């Protein structure tokens, strides 16, 4: 096919070139909207975390961690707080998770909810339903309650970490889409035929 040389040929090429240019512009706009949504989500997540007034707890007095004392407001401080919660929970539960701590207490935390054999008890004695919890089982019940609250807190904070990660992903993808659209527009501009003099 020969190159267009007349104004009529150029007009025909220009009309055919219009659809790809419009689509390339649409790609740029979609990418910009994606990036803006990502930035907005990141900002909202930051504001929501700050509004909770949570400060990163020290892991231990001897080794508090580099984020200790800082307000939780970004993915790094959120992960540091999760780590501190895990550490303190493990110290209270003896390293056991909520699922690993047996549940023998009724909902009031005062009495046994089932018969407990000597082999299954924490104090080496058998217990019947309705009896008052032994000191050892009351301590296990308290540790189980702490482990439950800990897992809820960790999950809640992990949601914010996920929100930060998804925001960053959307921002990055939006910028890539903008670059793709701009590249297409530049390629279309450079491929336009020039009229013969």
How do the strands and helices of this protein lay out in sequence?
Elements: H1 7-51, H2 75-93, H3 135-190
Task: Please outline what is shown here.
By secondary structure, the protein is mainly α. It has one domain (7-190).
Task: Explain what you see.
- With 197 residues, the chain is mainly α.
- The chain has helices at 7-51, 75-93, 135-190.
- Helix 2 runs antiparallel to helix 3 (135-190).
- The protein starts with 6 loop residues before the first helix and ends in a 7-residue tail after the last helix.
- The relative contact order is 0.18.
Brief descriptors of the model:
197 residues; 0% strand; mainly alpha; single chain
* Count of separate DSSP helical elements: 3
Task: Tell me roughly what share of residues is in helical segments.
Answer: 55-70%
- Strand fraction equals under 5%
> Rg, please?
31 Å
Most strands sheet: none
Shape: elongated
Let me know the average pLDDT.
Answer: 87
Q: Structural class of the helices, strands and pairings?
A: mainly alpha
Contiguous uncertain segments of 5+ residues: none
How far apart the termini lie comes to: 20 Å
- DSSP summary, beta strand count: 0
Number of domain modules: 1
The ordered H/E elements are HHH
